[in-house]
Each structure stands twice: as C-alpha cells, then as structure tokens.
Amino acid sequence: MEGTPVAVDAVRDAGPGTVALELETPEDFDPLPGQFVLLRAVPETDDQRGADEDDAVARHYTLSSPLVGETFELTVGVDPDGDLSPWLADLEPGATVHVEGPFGEITYERDRDIVAVAGGPGVGPAVSIAEAARDAGHDAVVVYRDDEPAHVDRLERLEDEGATVVLVDEDDDERLREAIEDHLEDGQLYAFGFHDFVTVVAETVDDAGGDSDEALIENFG
Fold first, then answer.
1. SS3 (DSSP) at 59
2. CATH tag, 4-103
3. What predicted TM-score, i.e. pTM, was given to this entire model?
4. What CATH fold (topology level) applies to the domain 114-219?
C-alpha cells in the first residue's frame, strides 16, 4: 500500500458525528498548521473481508493539532454511510493506517495575529491555527459555523486564554457575514470548509472592502 504505515495512538470523541484520530508521527514528518495528509486504509467491514491493498480507500484530512510531537491529530467527520470514516471512528489503539504528506500551501508559521473562519469539518485546522497563534503570543479569532459544533472544549479553552470565538448557526449566512466583517482587520484571514461556505467567505471579504486573494482559503470540494 502506498504511503507510510503509522499506528493509531487513540480515537477520541470530538463532538456530534466527529472524532479526533491521534496517530503516531512518522520519521521526518514536520507539517505546519493548515496542512493536510492523504490517509489510506483498507476498511475491514463485513462486506470487505479478505479485501487487499487494491481495495484501499483514500481521503484527505487536515491536521488539527497545533504542534507535532510523538503524535499528530486529524479531525474526522463521521458519515454513517461513508466507506472510510465510520471504520476510522471504531479503530482501536495499535491499528495501522497509511499516510502521505504533508501537503498544502495554506500554512501558519506562528508569526502574526489570525482570523480563522471554519465551516463544518474546517474547525479542525481553524482550532489548530488559533492554538498555535495563542501559543506564539498572537491574537486569534475563530468564526465557526455549525449547528452541532465539534472541539467545544478546545474552543472554550481558547476563549479562556483570550481568543475570540464566534459560533454561527448553520443556515445563518447573515450572521456569518457580520462576524467576518467585524473581524476582517484583526489578522491574517484563513478559511476552511466546503465550496459553498468558502465562496460566501470570499464574497464577504470583497464586499467588506478586503481582498479575498489575500485570504488563505482551503476549499474542501
């Protein structure tokens, strides 16, 4: 199988329909917050017993840990009908998956204040960048749209440490736009989410007098 085999250290509940997958760090793996990996595995489901490497399923996941030490974290949204995420959510420590990367040019180098705007699974990289900013002594704003937010404990810890966190209901584009406009000048803007979400973010930046070309936007497709 392609990629580097890594062991699962832990799988933790991170919110409704979301898990945090903690993986052992492979040698020479030194990503920056905002980057992602390609994860490959052969899910051993009832209808795939005896499957081989040709049946591997691959998905991209953005890192959700601000630092990489002996382990690193990926945030996985669990789709009950998905062909990989439900299996990942049920993994036990010691199981093996394969990773490639890191990939991506949307990075944070702990050098400035940030505004991280997240939709759905974009909360993973948004939280990691905010935590990295606070650890480096910079200000951080997280604007997060989701009816069932994940990583609530980390968001609350960020608030306790002085960051600004704005939670927005899933269908409330008006509130999302207001929050972006309110914090547009508060730091380098990052945005993570699916196409419709990041399109709204980019349009809002431009309408508010900013330049969406200067925003660091990761479109999940």
1. strand
2. 2.40.30.10
3. 0.93
4. Rossmann fold (3.40.50)
Q: Please list the residue range(s) of the chain that carry CATH number 2.40.30.10.
A: 4-103
CA–CA gap between residue 39 and residue 18 (Å, rounded): 17
And the tokens for 68? 């990489």
Number of Cβ atoms within 10 Å of the Cβ of 37: 27
Beta strand 188-193 with 114-119: parallel, antiparallel or unpaired?
parallel
Write out the two tokens for 29.
């793996």
Do 98 and 75 contact (CB within 8 A), yes or no? no
d(CA 145, CA 175): 9
- Residue 190: phi and psi, rounded to 5, are -115, 150
89-136 confidence digits (pLDDT tens) = 999 999 999 999 999 999 999 999 999 999 999 999 999 999 999 999
Nearest to 133 by CA among 181, 188, 171, 51: 188
Dihedral (CA of 105, 73, 79, 52) sign? positive
3-state secondary structure of 75: strand
Give the integer Cα–Cα distance in Å for 144 and 191.
10
**Which ranges in the chain are annotated with CATH 3.40.50.80?**
114-219
